[in-house]
Amino acid sequence: MSDPYSTLGVSRSASEKDIKSAYRKLAKELHPDKNKDNPKATERFSKVTQAYDLLSDKDKRAQFDRGEIDADGNPAMPFGMGGGGGFGGARPGAGPNGYSSRDFQGLGAEDLDIGDLFEGLFGRGGGQRSAQGGMGGGQRRPPPPPPRKGADIRYKLAVPFVDAASRAKQRITLADGKTIDLSLPAGVEDGTQMRLKGKGQQGPGGFGDGIVEIDIQPHAHFWREGDDVRLDLPITLDEAVNGDKVKVPTVDGAVMLTVAPGSSSGKVLRLKGKGFSKKGSGRGDQLVTLEIQLPEDVSELAEKLKGWSDDSDLRGDMGG
Fold first, then answer.
1. Separation of alpha carbons 247 and 259, rounded Å
2. Are strands 223-225 and 268-271 parallel, antiparallel or unpaired?
3. How confident is the model over 116-161, as pLDDT tens digits?
4. Taking 70 as the threshold, does the pLDDT of residue 297 lie above it?
5. With contact defined as beta carbons under 8 Å apart, do 154 and 73 qualify?
6. What is the pTM (predicted TM-score) of this model?
7. Architecture of the CATH domain 1-75
8. Is domain 223-304 given the CATH code 2.60.260.20 in the classification?
9. Would the CA dihedral through 113, 118, 123, 125 be positive or negative?
10. Using CA of residue 15, residue 19, residue 22, residue 25, what is the dihedral sign?
11. 269, 290 in Cβ contact below 8 A?
12. Neighbours of 164 (CB within 10 A)
């Protein structure tokens, strides 16, 4: 993968806002749904997404800028090796278990039991080994660890607020260009991580995993409060005084809500089961706060109210 800054077309001093803006522009242009007959666009989309995932993570960006990790998020020189070492590739001079003679340099006979080494690498055909057996009569060494899997690949998935609340399936494009549809978990929150087994990078011991972080997008009218969805609903003075049935948007679509006669601003009405899914089972509610809004021109209303006043002591308990 090329330099992530070059992939997004931004400088190394670019701000988070600049990086996000560049990614959105490229993602909109290259998204696979808009380029079904252009595999090169899909491939570039994957690279752009991977570059954004790295640069949008402050810690990873700092590590990359210091040369500690490469553009794929892997350690630049894992385990202190240079050249062809690292994840995802065979090591020079390595045996069938991924180990070479360089892994044991500096060990003396008192540190290394050759018999145990060969038993760990190739298996042993019978009989128990004496605790005093082998060179130097040392204690039996445990077998070497299995080859490491490849590195995980991290993704950040932007999910619309309504989709998160209703758990609508989300399509994500992986680093290899393939797309999959994800089912959001119950109790999904901003920052929830989902693990995709075997969707990471390849290594000597198999593939790593894909880690998807959920980024719930803000909504123009709804906001979240625990498992509930909140909404401020404007109503007219006539609807508040006389009562009425009014249409109310929810994350599952619009419903009709009854406003009782004499309703005041600030009154909260509850719509059962119209909130976010809970981690156990069920869903939260939607809480609708009524807001009485007067017309811009109140002259006609004022004329009708001439000679009438409300004598209620609304502020009597406030003192002063």
1. 10
2. unpaired
3. 444 444 444 444 444 444 444 557 888 888 888 999 999 999 999 9
4. yes
5. yes
6. 0.53
7. Orthogonal Bundle (1.10)
8. yes
9. negative
10. negative
11. yes
12. 24
